[in-house]
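Problem statement: downstream parser choked on a complex file, so we are re-checking the raw output for the UD2 run. The parser issue turned out to be on our end (a line-ending mismatch), but while we're here, posting the original submission so the record is complete.
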Amino acid sequence: MDKGQGPLTTCVVTGAAGFVGSHLCERLLSLGHTVVGVDNFFSGRPENLKTFASHPRFFFHERSVTETGLLTALKDQHGPVFAVFHLAAIVSVPYSLERPEETFLVNTQATLLLLEEAEVLGVRNFVFAGSAAEYGDRDRMPLTEADANEETRWLSPYGEAKYRASVAVASRRGSLCGVSLRCFNIYGPRQDPSSPYSGVISRFVNMAVAQRPLTIFGDGLQTRDFVFVSDVVDAYCLAGLRDDKDDIKRTSGVFNVGSGRATSIVNLARLICRLTHRPESITFGPERPGDIRHSTANIEAITRVLQWKPRIGLKDGLTRTIQWMRGSG
Ligand code: UD2
């Protein structure tokens, strides 16, 4: 798979100091592109920028995506922008339940404004961080892109706000190619394990490395679709770096990004214990309120249109995450 297609460009990455955003910046720099990173450190962390902060082709702006004229200001300073990778968002589901208005303002409204600005400025590709939360709670798996629609009952303002923005990005007509990547459960190095709402893999790996028991919420038979962060970065690059003008209509759209496989939480816990060479030390607590039961992506569309497929299997991805956690702990 060629992830460096097209010319060397200037790319804007919002949410550059986040878990996925920082990996994306690193990859774009390694491919030779110039990267203008934006983050207001609401949930992003300065240490995520550490490995590339002083790179000669990396420029950082501590700003919010809700600022009017943000892209225009960046273009004035850094020249024409080829692609905008818009990952900055309120990422916490519980926070979105407490502050729905702010969530719509940041996750939907700011996206619409950035999108309009990008189009006016002649940006070629706009890639948005969608979410599996856009599907609400569905019975039938795997989920195909059309399963999120106006009939969906979202479980949080986060899910609805992401859905509204995804639809706007994907239905853009004109010279701008808009792609929303509906990512399932992303995991890997740099994912913060510190809150009860952190991704289950970062929490389990953190606990296992610290030789503490892993706590499963509920019976552990709920399933998720785990996708390694470098595979997600592959998808961003395939969507954002293409330069085939005839391809805009074909490529614009919403695409699931997952492994296409269901893993139960109890099997995940056992695998992590095995990979960290410790006896199974697993406890069961009450089910987490609002949890969905199952979530698996159908990845046929992204495989067909963007020629993307996941390359890192769960065992390999977990091993890399464990190595990172050991090194940073
Ligand atoms: C993911 C997203 C969330 C939202 C949601 C929409 C992450 C980190 N979270 O939540 O932002 O988009 O999807 O559907 O990607 N669990 C345990 N023990 C723990 C932690 C979690 O058993 O210590 C369980 C948890 O109850 C759930 C499963 O593991 O059943 C996955 O939890 P999660 O928070 O990693 O992800 P999810 O899919 O609930």
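For whoever reads this later: The domain at 10-184+226-258 is CATH 3.40.50.720 (Rossmann fold).
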